[in-house]
Specification:
The protein is α/β, with parallel strands linked by helices. It contains 6 helices and 6 strands. The radius of gyration is 16 Å and the shape is globular.
Length: 179
């Protein structure tokens, strides 16, 4: 039996708080992978858990800490910008949303793409607004790096958590990739 399942009960997502690249980060996970994240300085635990439940339909509870192997992989991803070793649970998302978020995962740290580039990459070149909408509903910010997507003119565009956070994330990655 896994840590995210209890005898005779439906599977339960677990939530732990970790130090993220721009402050604390709630990370929700289960046996399928990371299923959510949120900025702890912008969202209380109760609100994060409620939004996770609204999206997944599953209960969630606070964990003492992330499992050591998951913690190490997240720390490595923060240090390198590489998300290849992380597993994500994107159940409930549309195939279109999943394709957009997977395209974000392919953007190397320190680099950006435009909304139009992503639309072309997923073979939907006219779906630029739909790509932006999918990015705006990304349930795993920072770890699924939608902050790496800009407008075609190079301006920041939008970010569900505010442009100052997007700018800080991009600046941090630029510094790390230049080192």
């Amino acid at each position: 039996m896994s840590d995210s399942e209890e005898v005779g009960r439906e599977p339960t997502d677990l939530i732990a708080k970790v130090a993220g690249p721009v402050g604390g980060l709630w990370v929700a996970y289960n046996d399928h992978g990371i299923c959510g994240s949120g900025f702890a300085n912008l969202t209380t635990f109760a609100r994060f858990r409620e939004e996770l439940h609204d999206r997944t339909g599953r209960p969630a509870r606070l964990a003492d800490a992330l499992p050591a192997d998951l913690f190490d992989l997240i720390e490595k991803s923060f240090a390198t910008g590489d998300r290849d070793e992380l597993t994500f649970d994107l159940r409930g998302a549309s195939p279109f949303q999943q394709s957009v978020w997977e395209a974000c995962l392919a953007i190397p740290a320190g680099e950006t793409r435009s909304y139009s580039d992503l639309a072309t990459e997923i073979h939907r070149p006219k779906a630029v607004r739909a790509v932006a909408s999918a990015l705006g509903t990304n349930p795993i910010p920072v770890l699924v790096p939608c902050h790496r997507v800009l407008r075609s003119d190079g301006s920041l565009g939008g970010y569900a958590y505010g442009l100052p956070i997007k700018e800080r994330l991009l600046d941090r990655e630029a510094v790390r990739s230049a080192a």
